[in-house]
Amino acid sequence: MTTLHTPPTSLALPIWISDRREKIPFEQIVWLQSSRNYTVFLLLDGRKVMTAKTLGEYEKKLPEGFVRVHRSSIVNCEYIVQLNRVQRMCILKNGQSIRISGRRLSNVILSLMG
Predict the structure, then answer these.
(1) Single pTM value for the model
(2) How far apart are CA 36 and CA 9, in angstroms?
(3) Domains of the chain
(4) Maximum distance among all alpha carbons in the chain?
(5) Is 16 left (phi over 0), alpha (psi -120 to 50) or beta?
(6) Could you tell me where the beta strands, DSSP code E, fall in 18-106?
(7) Mean of the pLDDT values across residues 82-109?
(8) d(CA 82, CA 90)
(9) 110's torsion region: left (phi>0), alpha (psi -120 to 50) or beta?
(10) Residue 95 DSSP class
(11) CA dihedral for 39, 48, 26, 76, sign (positive or negative)
(12) What is the tens place of the pLDDT at every residue in 16-71?
């Protein structure tokens, strides 16, 4: 299943962090991870930010260039440096390895080619 991304109306994603609203530039988002009904953002500067929305809610707001690699992860394609089809892993510029689910592998490959 492919999610259609809507074109961003701005260059940043507004999120609530505790009691304040912050706009995170899309290019600063390395990947997002689900944690039940919360989403953890891993940012370029190394910060981890937890918000009280689901990964699915954020998936609808992300522009092209982000790909859902697993039911619990979305990755910014700009930060993927290697893809291992056999182990179904993508390696990010920061050295992290993110698992890719079998049913999402072909969509990840297409996203990286386009």
Answers:
(1) 0.87
(2) 28
(3) 12-113 (2.40.50.1020)
(4) 43
(5) beta
(6) 20-25, 29-35, 38-43, 48-51, 66-70, 73-76, 80-84, 89-92, 97-99
(7) 96
(8) 6
(9) alpha
(10) S
(11) negative
(12) 888 899 999 999 999 999 998 999 999 999 999 999 999 999 999 999 999 999 99
